[in-house]
Amino acid sequence: MRSLISALATTTLIVAAPALAHPKLLASTPAANATVKPLAKVELSFSEALVARLSTAQLVMTGMPGMADHPAMPMQGRVAIGPDGKSLVVTFARPLAAGSYRLSYQVVSADTHKVEGAIEFKVR
């Protein structure tokens, strides 16, 4: 009887485990460390639905061609949750200029745990 109770308890924990998972970055457009043509949108896709009011991103231009000491320059964009509920989309008024960029993000899913990270890419 004890082994049956133990097996049921273990099964319950295994089944409940996915509900406690944190959102993981699955993909990004552009991909991390990619060099791309000018673009006006960056999208991050996660493993779980995101809480819109607690999820955000900030893009910073970290380098500009021909400027050795380019200071970090924040870029203004509109941050929104994609129609699937699992993506964070940052849209800019015009395509990004040539340079190096770092997109930092902070997302929260239904489990209420904050996950932070960043991707870097270049625009040619």
From TrEMBL:
Which terms does the record give in the GO molecular function aspect?
copper ion binding
What keyword terms does UniProt attach to this protein?
A: Copper, Metal-binding, Periplasm, Signal
A GO CC annotation recorded here is:
plasma membrane
Q: Where is the CopC domain?
A: 22-123
Query: Where would one find the signal peptide in this protein?
Result: 1-21
Q: Which domain of life is it from?
A: Bacteria
Kindly list the biological process annotations in GO that this record carries: copper ion transport; response to copper ion
Family annotation (Gene3D superfamilies): 2.60.40.1220
The principal localisation class reads: periplasm
Where found, per UniProt?
Answer: Periplasm
**Recorded family membership:** Belongs to the CopC family.
State the name under which the record lists this protein: Methionine-rich copper-binding protein CopC
Which organism does this record belong to?
Sphingomonas kyeonggiensis
